[in-house]
Amino acid sequence: MRVEPLDRSFGAKVYDLTLADLDQIEASEIYELWLKYALLIFPAQNLSNDQQIKFAKNFGALEFDLSPISNVRNDGSIRDANDDDIVKSLRGNMEWHHDSTYMPIQAKGAVFTAHKVPSKGGETGWADMRAAYDGLSQGMKEKINDLSAYHSYEWSQKERFGHKDPKVSEFNSYGFDIDPKPLRPLVKTHNETGQKCLTIGRHINKIPGMSDQEAQNLARELEEFACSNEDWVYHHSWEVGDAVIWDNRCLMHQACMWDLSEGRIMYHSRIEGDPISEAASNYL
User: Fold this and answer.
1) Spatial CB neighbours of 51, under 8 Å, sequence gap ≥ 6
2) Pairwise CA distance, residues 147 & 187, whole Å
């Protein structure tokens, strides 16, 4: 196994390893690398769906086994770029976020694989929320250390992208109906590494003690700070067959735009968060 760290505060590419045939020792080594680097990229693995699920289970129980992230229908046709609820969800993914902060338990991580990629664009970006927290001024740290925010997928998706009633939409509305909305600290401590990191992103709409506009302005200020330093952000240009795993507890991510007349087919396996450390405070 050959590990090449990215020229960033996080992340590494891993070569000379076959993910479909890992033994227990290799799986344990990868887990430790994952905790160290937060993002691992495995080029040219060409995992089948079943192999992806098996690999993802090395990191814990799954929130869900497998979900396509794609603008291509099952029959191979391309979805309407402007008036399709699945595409609206893809557009939402182009804003910075952590997975499942809008659920009672935030996801631990995710495995992503590329099955079809556009000729240009369609990258996935990640941002290091450990480095971002460390880089904050002392005054900002003092301001946010004791603040929590409500995360709502209903708000972030419906308000911005005009979804139809999810009951009559092809979009499956995962996370739309969560009530009460999960309340999460802006600053969390990673339960396995002990590092402090930000938990922010597009799903934040309310912070107790602030007006909605003040809350959203603060969330935007933190996001712009966290994602403006090139040492803390990495965008991956996909090749068919690539596989990645990232730590959702300390990284935000986003998809990048591509020509939506071209197909992009990715598969996502989401790793379930610890029911204590990743639970929203109003669900403990």
Assistant:
1) 19, 20
2) 8
Q: What is the pLDDT of residues 25-51, one digit of tens each?
A: 999 999 999 999 999 999 999 999 999
Alpha helices in 196-274 (DSSP H): 212-226
How far is 184 from 210, CA to CA, in rounded Å? 15
3-class secondary structure, 227: coil
Which CATH number, 2.40.50.100, 3.60.130.10, 3.40.50.150, 3.40.50.300, labels domain 2-274?
Answer: 3.60.130.10
Look up residue 43 and give its two tokens. 């080029």
Q: pLDDT digits over 231-240, tens only?
A: 999 999 999 9
Whole-model pTM over 0.90: yes
Please choose, from the candidates 96, 117, 93, 95, the residue with its C-alpha nearest in 3D space to the C-alpha of residue 43.
Answer: 117
pLDDT tens for 162-174 read 545 554 556 666 7
Distance separating alpha carbons of residues 10 and 21, to the nearest angstrom: 26
Q: What digits encode the pLDDT tens for the residues 186-206?
A: 999 999 999 999 999 999 999
Burial class (CB in 10 A: 0-12, 13-18, 19+), 78: middle
Which of 90, 116, 86, 61 has the alpha carbon at shortest distance from 270?
A: 61
At 266, the amino acid letter reads M
Beta-strand pair 243-247/187-189 = unpaired
Instruction: Give Dmax over CA atoms of the chain in angstroms.
Output: 54
Residues 171 and 231: their CA atoms lie apart, in Å, by 36
The phi and psi torsions of 188 (rounded to 5 degrees) equal -120, 165
Question: What is the share, in percent, of the chain residues with pLDDT greater than 90?
Answer: 89
